[in-house]
């Protein structure tokens, strides 16, 4: 992968990160706004399950943020675009679809197959 391609992925990852952080900020604001009290217990239950959903979402966002930061670090280290399992190049098309990926398509399918065999 040449410098231009690396710069492209670095920009894409940074942009992705900004979007998630932005969305996360909005989520926090929503949660603060919905901190009102509900007279009807059913409304309260809905608000609480909304909150649980939001927190789960936040957890997923946090994991994604970590993945993106790791991908940016791999660009810095010169490891970006190489499969962590076999060391082969990961195709540009695959990276464009999913820049945080660390496995080439062959290793990824093998991993998925193994997960299925374990009944996951
Ligand atoms: Zn591989």
TrEMBL record:
Transcription factor that acts by binding directly to the RNA polymerase (RNAP). Required for negative regulation of rRNA expression and positive regulation of several amino acid biosynthesis promoters. A zinc finger (dksA C4-type) spans 83-107. Interacts directly with the RNA polymerase. The lineage of its organism: Bacteria, Pseudomonadati, Thermodesulfobacteriota, Desulfovibrionia, Desulfovibrionales. One of its GO terms (biological process) is regulation of gene expression. Its main location: cytoplasm. It holds the Pfam family DksA_N. Keywords: Cytoplasm, Metal-binding, Zinc, Zinc-finger. It comes from Maridesulfovibrio ferrireducens. This is RNA polymerase-binding transcription factor DksA. GO terms for molecular function: zinc ion binding.
